[in-house]
Amino acid sequence: MIHVDIETYNERQEEVYQDICRLLASLIDKHLPEAECKIWHRHPVWFLDGNPTVGYSTIKAGLRLMFWSGASFDEEALKPGTGKFKDASITYTAVHEVKQRDVKRWLAKSTEIQWDYKNIVKRKGKLVRLK
Asked: What is the CATH number of domain 4-112?
């Protein structure tokens, strides 16, 4: 069941993005049932053992689905972030662009491949691979 704060976030998005948000939230909840979800930095984010794993947000180009460790997934459709972190994302502008099989595969990889963002401050910005 999708958390009420996530539902509220989804409903507040432009109409064109609401269906994308609902689909992504339902896929993430289904395939990461052990994850804790909440609004973090004003966006829906799912955490595994306190570590941010996947989330989405609206950006100028569309609705971005981001995996914190996605640059290590070796997935062509996920574009690495521009900073020193291991994030990667894909941007959607319509619900039909969401390939559920791909999202399911990426969610599975997000449980197998994780960088430790939870302790990044303790480690003075250094990322350490957990899995």
From this structure: 3.90.1150.200
What pTM, to 2 d.p., does this model score?
0.90
Within 13 Å of residue 82, how many CA atoms lie on the same side as its CB? 0
If we measure between CA atoms, which residue out of 77, 83, 63, 61 comes closest to residue 109?
77
Task: Dihedral sign for Cα 44, 38, 67, 2, please.
Answer: negative
Residues 75 and 112: beta-carbon distance below 8 Å: no
Interhelix angle 100-112/15-31, rounded to 10 degrees, is 50
* Domain spans, the chain: 4-112
The model's pLDDT over 99-110, given as tens digits with 9 standing for 90+, comes to 999 999 999 999
Please report where in the chains the tokens 């990667």 appear, as a residue.
88
Neighbouring-strand partners of residue 56: 65
